[in-house]
Design goal:
Keywords: Hydrolase, Membrane, Metal-binding, Metalloprotease, Protease, Transmembrane, Transmembrane helix, Zinc. The chain is an alpha/beta fold. It has 10 helices and 7 strands.
Length: 293
């Protein structure tokens, strides 16, 4: 279910909300569900405001019963400072909401029991989202930090594998642990597993989108300056294999060596990206790639 949101942004609500809402009404917990939904929405709007402040293009906000995900393409080429600020903008919303709850309690506007529930819900959402697992905010921080010096393709695959393992472990612990069945924790674990498995399956697609954005990023690189990453590869390495060594926020210079280790060609990264998208031979060896005329 998708609805229009602020500035035309799409806000998608997971179908699981409907049966959960019905169950909450039947059991008398609809106020708690509505409160959690509001907290998740404010959390995601914090991400949205920070992202738009940096000029990112936000495609959609997806709301789940226990969290949300902001979908954007800008993070693939954004500097670490921006990624960290956007990731932390969500959990930081819970700080002022906790302070507001204590003020309401002090003024007698809410009961101590509701205040305790509200504070606990905020703290739980903030701490859960800071776990170092994608697509949670802590996982986005780890992804941004690791991606600053690790090839993009390798980063998205390794983070997805780690997240899937953590999700599977959390689900197993919630269902078969000595403390008994924890349904909510099992749902969160299953969510993490599924999302990371999907990320792993779509890693090559995300990587191609990253490469496609490099053309636009080159304009910003020439205007603002960017670190250069130079590396040497064997001339038998293909174009497809070589671009998988590209790191975010760096402009790459590739030295092509022959069997004797002598430099035979030097290519800027845009030459390889052009060959990848325009040629029908992505597996062409670099030693056979002519210079750009």
């Amino acid at each position: 279910m998708t609805r229009g949101g602020p500035s035309g942004i799409r806000i998608g609500v997971h179908p699981l909300f409907l049966p959960l809402a019905l169950a909450s009404v039947l059991t008398g917990y609809w106020v708690e569900l509505a409160t959690l939904f509001g907290l998740v929405l404010v959390h995601e709007l914090g991400h949205f405001a920070a992202a738009r402040g940096f000029g990112w293009k936000v495609e959609e906000i997806r709301l789940f019963p226990f969290g949300g995900v902001m979908v954007t393409d800008a993070a693939a080429g954004a500097p670490f400072r921006q990624e960290a600020a956007v990731a932390l903008a969500g959990p930081l919303q819970h700080v002022w909401m906790i302070g507001l709850a204590y003020c309401w309690r002090q003024w007698g506007w809410v009961s101590p029991e509701w205040c305790e529930f509200f504070v606990r819900a905020n703290a739980t959402l903030a701490l859960f989202n800071l776990l170092p697992v994608s697509p949670l905010d802590g996982g986005r921080l780890v992804w941004a930090a690791v991606g600053a010096f690790t090839p993009f393709y390798r980063t998205i695959r390794r983070c997805a594998v780690f997240g899937a393992v953590v999700g599977a472990g959390l689900t197993a612990a919630a269902l078969f642990g000595p403390w008994g069945v924890r349904v909510h924790a099992a749902m969160m674990g299953a969510f993490l597993f599924v999302e990371n498995w999907k990320n792993y399956r779509s890693s090559i697609y995300r990587f191609w989108r990253f490469l496609a954005q490099r053309t636009e990023a080159s304009v910003a690189f020439s205007r603002n300056g960017v670190p250069i990453a130079a590396f040497a590869v064997d001339g038998r390495r293909t174009v497809r294999e070589t671009v998988k060594l590209f790191v975010k926020n760096k402009f790459h210079i590739i030295y092509v060596l022959d069997e004797k280790g002598i430099t035979r060609r030097v290519f800027p990264e845009d030459r390889l990206i052009e060959e990848l998208f325009s040629s029908k031979r992505p597996d062409r060896p670099l030693r056979d790639l002519p210079p750009k005329i």
